[in-house]
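Repro:
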Amino acid sequence: MQTQTPAPSAAPRIDVDAVRLDAVCKSFAPARRRAPAVTALQDLTLRVGEGEIVAVVGPSGCGKTTLLELICGLTTADAGTIDAQDAVLMAQRDLLLPWADAVDNAALALRVAGLQRSAARRRAAALLVDFGLGGFEAARPHELSGGMRQRVAFARTLLAGRPVLCLDEPFASLDALTRLQMQDWLAGALSADPRTVVLVTHDVEEAIVLADRVAVLSPRPGRVVATLEVDVPRPRNRMAPELVALRGRALRELAA
């Protein structure tokens, strides 16, 4: 698998909020009659600066996916305020169309936006080459490895043209080695094309390697209980003492 070497990029404008949530609460109706409502998020406050990568970690069921859906406008809060630039969600599964080739899958967002198929395919094909998928443009999803499928899904997400990317555990389904390779690849892709990113992950090391800041959520109902600054230059060595220490801090916060 090809990886990209991150190049130096401009510092994020953390003085300009791309995403701002204040005292946000979100509950869901019970699945069974007379069962209590489920409160996913309670008094959650979070800032994401323009061009910043913020990772969100927390126990299962603490509302991480709900947080991304709120930022993308796919659901509404019960209380609190949300102010976010246009955002697009990359779900946990790649959701590629099995009957379409890699180019048409990557170009889907452009087609939905109204671009003609030929023009959309040209733009998507160029991006797939940049992503190391040259020669696989005509491949169907079942002909691609897990890492390749995730790169096609990420290309589709980028081509949506939104300034904020919400990534919901994009590498959770991959094997350990491929996941490490994809983390390095994503770091390079975001260095080449900087965006504001909110990354949800269960992998604390992934959060530390990729993010500028890590927000730690409490068990359900989720709220931010700690924020860790990752002030380490890129490209990052995941075995560097500073990153190992930050990983330990994040794990302690999760266990508190």
